[in-house]
Design goal:
The chain has about 300 residues and is α/β, with parallel strands linked by helices. Helix content is about 40%, strand content about 15%. It has 11 helices and 9 strands. Bound molecules: S-adenosylmethionine. Its EC number is 2.1.1.72.
């Protein structure tokens, strides 16, 4: 059974449930670098567990948190102490304390406050207003940081921390164009950009020109790449599938998103993975059978910590 480690940071579009599928397509051999221009929560790369990796994102707060764990500047012990003390204050002062932390974060941008907000805000989303200020409301639970919940978060932190200490990982806050400017033949690039029109905020705009720039850069990619995108939902299809990505290989399957309170946000989306290579297991398979075979290859999985 495959174990999926859930990372300490939550974000919209988190791909926890797609990790086994991505891993089966990649067949990672640890020869080159694992590169993620849109790392988000990090769930994909952290579960691939590469020795060399470049993890990037345009959101400086995600990068600052993971970079601090990577350098050892922030340890699981410090995270625990902070969550215990902030949890007590939240339980004592209630909702008002959440807003105090939010205000403090929007002035000092401390990685530990980012974690506190991310794990106590409404629905665990990351959203910044047009001034770049975190603006997600309180998640309603003043007893949020129970002993069990703190242990769960600290365990999640510890997995990333230990892996980072044993590996050669780099975290950079930069635009995907910069990340994709220097890809080597042994590298594998996993791209998971925002889906146009969904979850737009200060760090998450996505336009047709972004998608087209991404396509141009991935066409020139010297290594292998995988792109996560959506194929269709019950209302419409992704127009870029037939206009931009036609020359690559594509695999699809259903994914159920759990972020967002509204029922409409919980509708299934047919996810697509677009690649510039044929997965090794399918190389000798007639093309019309490839998709079904890939589904059969997916292993039973177990989530190390609850998937929210
Ligand atoms: C769908 S999320 C990635 C989710 C991630 N794969 C996971 O499973 O957690 C997209 C990420 O792209 C980042 N992003 C948005 N625009 C970007 C850009 N122009 N360059 C780099 N990163 C960007 C966002 O901050 C966000 O973290």
């Amino acid at each position: 059974m495959t174990r999926i480690h859930i990372p300490p940071i939550k974000c919209q579009g988190i791909k926890s449930k797609l990790v086994p599928w991505i891993r089966d397509i990649v067949q990672w051999n640890d020869r080159g670098r694992w590169i993620e221009p849109f790392v988000g929560s990090g769930v994909v790369g952290f579960n691939i567990a590469p020795h060399h990796a470049l993890f990037c994102d345009s959101n400086p707060h995600i990068i600052a948190f993971y970079a601090a764990l990577n350098t050892g500047e922030l340890t699981p012990g410090q995270v625990k102490t902070y969550l215990v003390s902030e949890g007590k204050k939240l339980a004592h002062y209630g909702k008002a304390y959440y807003y105090e932390v939010r205000e403090r974060f929007n002035t000092t941008y401390q990685p530990l406050d980012f974690l506190v907000l991310n794990r106590s805000c409404f629905n665990g989303v990351i959203r910044f207003n047009s001034q770049g200020k975190f603006n997600v409301p309180f998640g309603h639970k003043v007893e949020r940081f129970s002993k069990a919940y703190i242990t769960k978060i600290v365990n999640q932190v510890e997995v990333v921390y230990k892996q980072a200490q044993l590996s050669q990982w780099t975290f950079l806050c930069q635009d995907f164009r910069q990340t994709l400017a220097d890809i080597h033949p042994d590298d594998v690039v996993y791209c998971d950009p925002p889906y146009a029109g969904r979850h737009v905020d200060y760090y998450n705009g996505w336009t047709e020109s972004d998608e087209s720039a991404l396509c141009t850069l991935l066409k020139q990619c010297a290594g292998k790449f995988l792109l996560s995108t959506w194929h269709h939902n019950q209302y419409r299809g992704n127009p870029y599938i037939t206009t931009l990505w036609t020359e690559f290989h594509m695999f699809t399957r259903e994914h159920f998103y759990h972020v967002g309170a509204k029922e409409t946000n919980r509708n299934p989306v047919i996810e697509a993975i677009i690649t510039n290579f044929i997965p090794r297991q399918l190389q000798a398979t007639p093309s019309e059978m490839k998709y079904e075979q890939l589904l059969l290859l997916e292993r039973e999985m177990e989530y190390a910590v609850n998937v929210r």
